[in-house]
Specification:
By secondary structure, this protein is mostly beta strands. It has a domain of 96 residues. The chain contains no helices and ten strands. The strands form two sheets. It has a six-stranded antiparallel sheet with strand order 5-6-7-8-9-10, with no helix packed on it. Strand 8 and strand 9 form a beta hairpin. It is globular, with a radius of gyration of 14 Å. The mean pLDDT is 86.
């Protein structure tokens, strides 16, 4: 899955991310996809989320909505933070036995993006997260 700031195309020179079961990366949206940071996940337990075939598409999410990327362990959500004043979008790996009710899998890398910043987060126990890479959006 790729996520960035923009509409049908990414805002030039902004930062975007890609996330998958294998890990997460931040890149510059300049057409060359220059990678700024990359972290690899360990093996993720359990089967992947179920998948249904459909054409690739773009989605627009409202606050507090989430999506599951079928065929992976990845789930994403649009969430307000900082007392509901900052909109962010984040993705990470879930143990599919808990669905999206639990935390991201400890030891994996999650990503977050907003109009102001983008980051890769190392997931710890009980959902604790540590920033391992961060860039300010232009």
């Amino acid at each position: 899955m790729v996520c960035g700031i923009g509409g049908k195309s990414l805002r030039p020179k902004s930062f975007a991310f890609t996330v998958a079961d294998k890990g997460a990366a931040i890149f510059v949206a300049n057409g060359a996809q220059q990678v700024i940071a990359r972290d690899l996940n360990p093996a993720i337990p359990g089967p992947a989320f179920a998948s249904a075939k459909h054409k690739p598409t773009n989605y627009v999410l409202s606050k507090n909505e989430h999506i599951i990327v079928g065929g992976t362990h990845i789930a994403c959500a649009a969430l307000p933070i900082d007392n509901q004043t900052l909109e962010t979008f984040g993705c990470g790996a879930f143990d599919t036995a808990t669905g999206t009710a639990g935390y991201y899998v400890a030891g994996t890398y999650a990503v977050t993006i907003s109009e102001q910043y983008i980051g890769i987060l190392k997931v710890g126990k009980m959902g604790a997260q540590t920033v391992v890479a961060k860039e300010k959006q232009p």
